[in-house]
Write a structure and sequence with these properties.
This protein is an alpha+beta fold. 26% of the residues lie in helices and 30% in strands. It has helices spanning 5-21, 36-52, 67-73, 123-128, 151-156, 202-215, and strands at residues 57-63, 79-84, 88-89, 94-96, 104-113, 130-140, 161-166, 180-185, 188-194, 225-227, 235-236, 242-247, 251-258. It starts with a helix and ends with a strand. The chain binds 2-oxoadipic acid (OOG) and magnesium ion.
């Protein structure tokens, strides 16, 4: 079954509406096979709908860059998604549980870019394009029933992008390759890991971002934020929960969940 342009447009509307209304949907691939390129086309059109409503593209997120994440969702390909200003949650702020289907949180490293980055680049070139690094938390929320999906489904659903919180930016004059991370829920450690879990070093995730995003005809631009991917498995959010990420030598980042 080949996928027509009209079908791509329809799927883009389906995933966008599911995200906007916090309603779960069946997996697209239950009824219609999609190639990876078609899935990225659905993602692109669904995010264009957000931009048409006034949201702004502020960067990209990498996904499934650690084994813990791949194992948790049963998909083992590195993926990426788009971040808009509406997804940003203020550090120390609150999110409303009702806005999501079944949200989870995971600790990540964020890069703030000062140079453009596109195509095949080395680790050193990627690092030279970084203005600052920060501890971050990503809120992911698959729109698919039971948080279950195949690779094309999750890509079409903007790689589960829902929200992100960024802590204090620091100049990248230290190595982010092995930062100890504790994810806490209500003061209790729920995940413990290291930034080394992200492809061996988070800078490799930025290199992969430059390469993969270029395949869709886009490039990373100065001022954009890139999330490197979860360093640990994600933890389920619940109403009333206080979430905090503690990153050794980098600082903390926190938010709370309201009803
Ligand atoms: C897919 C998104 C993965 C990460 O950091 O690995 C991701 C998902 O787990 O729903 O954001
Ligand atoms: Mg993530």
């Amino acid at each position: 079954m080949s996928t027509t342009r009209n079908t791509i447009v329809t799927f883009a509307e389906t995933v966008d509406t599911a995200a906007a209304t916090a309603r779960e949907i069946p997996q697209i691939t239950d009824t219609h096979p999609l190639t990876v390129d078609e899935a990225y086309a659905v993602q692109s059109l669904s995010v264009q709908r957000r931009l048409a409503r006034g949201e702004r593209l502020v960067g990209y997120k990498m996904g499934l860059t650690s084994r813990a994440k791949m194992q948790q969702v049963g998909v083992s390909e590195v993926i990426w998604g788009r971040l808009t200003d509406a997804m940003r949650v203020e550090e120390g702020g609150a999110v409303s549980f009702a806005r999501y289907v079944h949200p989870r949180v995971e600790p990540e490293i964020a890069f703030l870019m000062k140079g453009p980055l596109s195509g095949a680049v080395s680790n050193a070139e990627a690092l030279a394009a970084v203005d600052a690094v920060a501890p971050a938390l990503e809120i992911i929320d698959s729109r698919y029933r039971d948080f279950k999906f195949a690779l094309p489904d999750v890509i079409a659903d903007n790689s589960s992008s829902s929200g992100f919180v960024v802590g204090e930016w620091r100049k990248p004059d230290f190595d982010v390759g092995n930062i100890g991370i504790v994810l806490e829920a209500d003061g209790r450690p729920v995940q413990v890991g290291s930034s080394a879990a992200i492809l061996g070093h988070p800078i490799r995730s930025l290199v992969a971002a430059a390469r993969l995003i270029a395949r869709s005809g886009e490039g990373i631009k100065p001022g954009q934020i890139i999330l490197a991917g979860g360093a640990t498995a994600a933890h389920h959010l619940a109403p009333g929960m206080a979430v905090r990420g503690v990153f050794a030598g980098m600082g903390r980042v926190a938010f709370t969940v309201e009803d």
